Amino acid sequence: MKTEMLKHDILIIGGGSIGLNCAYYLLKSGREVTILESKEIPKASAAFGNAGQIVPSHIIPLAAPGVVTSALKWMLNPQTSAFGMKIRPDAQYISWLIQFARSCTEANLKRGIQPMQRLGQLSASNFQKLIQEEKFECHYQHNGMITIFKDEKTFEAGVHEGEMLQKHGIEIEVLDKNRLHTLEPILRDDVIGGVHCMGDAFLNPSMFLKSLHERVRAMGANIFENTSVIGFEIQNGKIKKVKTETQEFEAEQIILATGAWSSMLARDLKIKIPIQPARGYSVSMSAPKQMPRHAFTLGDLHVAVTPFGNILRATGRLEMGEFSTTPNQIWIRRLENFMREYFNFDDDVKMIDSWAGLRPVTPDGIPIIGKSPLHSNLIVATGHAMVGLTMGPATGQLVSELVNGKETAFDISPFRLERFYKAMSF
Question: Of the chain's two ends, which shows fewer C-beta atoms within 10 Å, N or C?
Fold first, then answer.
């Protein structure tokens, strides 16, 4: 079967949160954009069924001091563990795990915290502008996120972390039990306090991504859904062709924004992108009569809970090394039970939906945003882990600035792919 050759200005591989945001900002800059997505947009996005929290307060990289010890302790209590890991005899996966463990240092924390803070603040600002200018209806609320606690020790640790965040420009308020229950009377009586990150926000992620998808299409993007990339043709350090089953695409500039699947496509490009999938789950409940007004994190369990419209959703769990998006029903039921342990629900509140998605995680817990070290016309934008929704608009702006040869909003060298090359042995 003869394939058709199509020529384009900008070709974005991946139609999730990062890909759509890249398309939006590139279209705004006057570029012509084509998107290739192997599944259906926006359901393919790892953010589609998540908690919808916009959290510029999440400036601590996933690979931070104490994470390995905490993960091992959590796994000793599998019924509530926020972390799970599938062991498989795969050299690349084992190498990634070793790199991650080695990255859980004070040095990595110090290296990552400022660029993560800048990325988060830019994204929070861009969210407000984008939603206001485009008049998206997505239950957007900008009143902060409250991490709530039942256990005194974890509350104290949460307050300590909040104090550290304050030193990096994150506005927080520590809430005692009386203040917290005045703000949110739906909480159960044994919830003893919280830490309110005032600059955070939340929205319905599926509604936002659907609106962004529609807006990008209306702005002129050519979108090919259910179109998998099967290979590349490279000449003299330039990607000449992107191949699918039925067509071949040629583009001036290519953006790789394929999330958890980035490392697979990277093999054909002869570059190393150390991404592993981390499966997470969400449970959506029907609205209680007294709907909470804020987004939450259950600090004792590392579970996010968000209200939007007539839905209250919980999202949790980080399962490394698992490419399946089939929800584990044991964990779905546990998430529902966790919600009931923290909130006073009416008798008729019930689960209405469940979901599982794959977050793309780098060994140092910091995203990859930058030009390919081996290709003159490739930019990589991936590895955002649990904050792909949060960091989407900032990443889109930065990629647009790179493509157009403009100075980026801030120094993005900490996000460069090359930082991994000395560490990788595969």
Answer: N
Cα–Cα dist 281/316, whole Å: 6
**Contacts of 13 by beta carbon, 8 Å cutoff, 6+ apart:** 19, 36, 229, 242, 254, 255, 256, 257, 258, 265
The model's pTM is 0.96
Count CB atoms within 10 A of the CB of residue 329.
Answer: 10
Instruction: Read off the pLDDT of each residue in 101-109 and give the average, rounded to a whole number.
Output: 96
Q: Are 262 and 382 in contact (CB under 8 A)?
A: yes
6 has pLDDT over 90: no
Query: Amino acid identity of 308?
Result: F
For residue 376, the 8-state DSSP code is T
Q: What is the distance between the alpha carbons of residues 110 and 293, in angstroms, rounded to a whole number?
A: 34
The C-alpha angle 263, 250, 2, rounded to 5 degrees, equals 100
pLDDT at 218 over 70: yes
Collect all residues with Cβ–Cβ distance below 8 Å to 56 and sequence separation of at least 6: 117, 120, 121, 123, 124, 170, 199, 200, 390
Contact 304, 294 (CB under 8 A): no
Which residues lie below 8 Å from residue 216, measured CB to CB, with a gap of 6+? Answer: 20, 23, 24, 27, 33, 35, 223
423 vs 38: which has the higher pLDDT? 38
Q: Answer yes or no: is pLDDT of 424 > 70.
A: no
